[in-house]
Design goal:
The chain is of the alpha/beta class. The chain contains 18 helices and 13 strands.
Length: 628
């Protein structure tokens, strides 16, 4: 920087960034036009008109923004030229003044030394003393606000191909991401210019905020189109919907209301309070299911929100993910298709997603099933509640052991169904109790050896314990006014996981039941350190692995004996739990396997086993009926 406040390097940065952004915007014209034409090919009706209007506004605004940036480059270049001219003028004036002082000094010195007059020096013309006028830079841009609903769209019908609409969104988001990178670079360069080039007059430069707003409108368009596609996919049929139903699917008011729940730092209790303020009821489940996928994903796993709403959100997301996976697989042979990373991931998880979907089927049973957890993990984590978790007076979390995943969600849910049915049998008539059992596949379980030896450590159990503890606290918040009896049932490594959850601060349950425990953590001295009013433990006869197959439990003792930090057997007298039998009783089958649900009926939670009957008694507060 020289004699004036103008940094040529900062000006060059703006020129380069603005030029790059302009080039990007102009280069997008072809891809965006093709995406619009493809989406519009089978899009008709009022919403198609709105789509074309928005696409036209985007195209016009993109061209205007590119022109504004082009003009900005010219103005900054002119400013740079003017600044250089002013610097040159000031340098020349300084040089002339210095020369003039030297000339006058030489003349004075000559007069003193001699009696003759010095020769007359020819003076250079004095440079201009009139400063170069600082240029003014004006670069205003404000995009148009696009209308996406209202204005009579509720009349008539619209039709569309949802796959084409989603392709539009994919292209739009990809181009927006590229433009956003340019916008970020330009904003940074402009900030530096303002800080180091104050010599220039800035007048009405709104292109930075205008650029951001333009991209916000584009993102809103993509989200809007995705929601329209969601509505058409759910409807199926001939691809035609009433505009009124699309109005409801794209209404932003409900989105804004629900997003209040996601404010940073809200505890589950605070979430429950915000939900109560929203005034939403089960009658709103269908409207909730129409919300954007990002909103539903957050709501479906939000502790403190009612479970019916979480299930409505999760089931909708589950259906969308399955549809996304199927589209991806159907389009593999189409060279003109644009593949999304989301579609590829859902295709990889399709087996698990379909297993979760199948687990939601009641199989003709009367108890409702709800999806209270559906994560974005690979494969997804999930929880299926059998019974109404919002109303039940007795709630049991069923926590699985090693090797479990949503790839076999139906198996764990079937086992949980057996617990639910046994509880219903165990409760005396007239007690007025209703139950719910949560098939909780909400943590990543360790693989079965020899694929991994992680089951002998506690890394997976500690991580899973944190998630289970959060779920239990969530129930405390959601059901604070009508708190049910709360039980935790753990199998194998699930008992290790649950033990960490039940020694966490702020967690307390009415009962903790272990079956086939792979070991309680050594850090827990006994049952009295577990945050449960009662602790029960069941263990079948120990069988020699691979040698005495189907002769008893081959693996629980192995998990304990070879572990690094969870050696304790909860059925041991010194631990302090109430033990119950699992090796058979009159009219009841013995356990002959480490599993819970086997094809031959020898698992811990198979029907007509002594183990299942005792689990039913333990989780309904009837320890006096346990068979020892």
């Amino acid at each position: 920087m020289g004699k004036i406040e103008f940094d040529a390097a900062a000006a060059d940065a703006v020129i380069n960034a603005a030029t790059s952004a302009e080039d990007e915007l102009r280069a997008q014209a072809g891809a965006r036009r093709s995406a619009v034409e493809d989406a519009a090919a089978e899009f008709s009706g009022t919403y198609a008109n709105r789509f074309n209007e928005s696409a036209s506004a985007e195209s016009t605004d993109r061209g205007k923004l590119a022109s504004v940036l082009n003009d900005l480059v010219s103005q900054v270049r002119d400013a740079k030229t003017s600044a250089e001219a002013e610097e040159d003028r000031l340098d020349a004036l300084d040089a002339w003044n210095e020369a003039e002082r030297s000339r006058q000094y030489a003349a004075a010195t000559s007069l003193i030394a001699t009696t003759t007059l010095p020769p007359i020096a020819i003076r250079a013309p004095k440079p201009s003393e009139v400063a170069v006028r600082p240029p003014s830079i004006h670069a205003a841009f404000t995009p148009r606000e696009r209308s996406r609903s209202g204005g009579g769209t509720g009349l008539g019908r619209s039709s569309a191909d949802p796959a084409r609409l989603r392709d539009f969104s994919i292209v739009s988001r990809a181009n927006d991401a590229a433009a956003d990178a340019k916008a970020t670079s330009l904003a940074g360069a402009w900030k530096g210019f303002l800080a180091s080039c104050s010599w220039v007059v800035i007048d009405g430069c709104t292109f930075v905020t205008g650029f951001d707003r333009f991209l916000e409108e584009n993102r809103a368009d993509a989200a809007w189109i995705d929601r329209i596609a969601d509505a058409f996919e759910r409807a199926g049929g001939d691809g035609s919907l009433t505009n009124a139903s699309i109005d409801k699917a794209t209404d932003d008011r409900l989105v804004r209301d629900v997003q209040r729940l996601f404010a940073e730092g809200l505890t589950p209790s605070e979430v429950a309070a915000v939900w109560a303020d929203l005034g939403l009821t089960r009658k709103d489940a269908a409207d909730i299911a129409l919300l954007p996928t990002s909103v539903l994903t957050a709501l479906g796993n939000l502790e403190g929100a009612p479970y019916w709403a979480r299930s409505a959100a999760n089931v909708s997301v589950l259906d969308r993910r399955i549809a996304s996976a199927e589209r991806f697989l159907d389009d593999l042979d189409r060279p003109d298709r644009i593949y999304s990373a989301e579609g590829r991931k859902n295709a990889e998880d399709l087996s698990a997603l379909e297993s979760i979907k199948a687990a939601l089927g009641s199989g003709g049973r009367s108890a409702p099933r709800t999806l209270t957890v559906l994560s974005a993990d690979h494969p997804p984590l999930a929880a299926v509640s059998i019974g109404d978790l919002d109303e039940a007076t007795n709630v049991t979390w069923a926590v699985p052991g090693m090797g479990s995943s949503t790839g076999s969600m139906t198996d764990w849910t079937d086992a949980a169904q057996n617990v639910f049915s046994e509880q219903a049998k165990a409760v005396p008539k007239g007690r007025g109790s209703t139950n719910a059992v949560v098939a909780w596949m909400g943590y990543e379980a360790p693989p079965v050896p020899p694929a991994s030896s992680a089951v002998f450590g506690s890394e997976y159990a500690k991580a899973g314990g944190e998630k289970l503890a959060a779920s239990i606290k969530g129930l405390d918040a959601t059901r604070a006014d009508t708190m049910p009896t709360v039980n935790v049932l753990g199998h194998s490594y699930g008992t290790t996981t649950a033990s960490y959850a039940l020694t966490a601060e702020g967690v307390h349950v009415d009962s903790f039941t272990t079956i086939a425990s792979a070991g309680i953590p050594d850090s827990i001295d006994g049952a009295d350190e577990i945050h449960a009013d009662a602790v029960y433990a069941g263990q079948a006869e120990v069988a020699k692995p691979l040698i005495e197959h189907w002769g008893g439990d081959e693996w629980a003792a192995v998990g304990r004996d070879f572990s690094s930090d969870h050696h304790q057997d909860p059925t041991a007298p010194g631990f302090g739990a109430t033990s119950f039998g699992a090796d058979g009783a009159p009219g009841l089958n013995p356990v002959r396997d480490h599993g819970v649900h086997t094809w031959y009926g020898g698992g811990y939670l198979d029907e007509d086993t002594q183990s299942l009957q005792n689990v039913g008694y333990a989780t309904t507060g009837q320890p006096e009926r346990l068979t020892r």
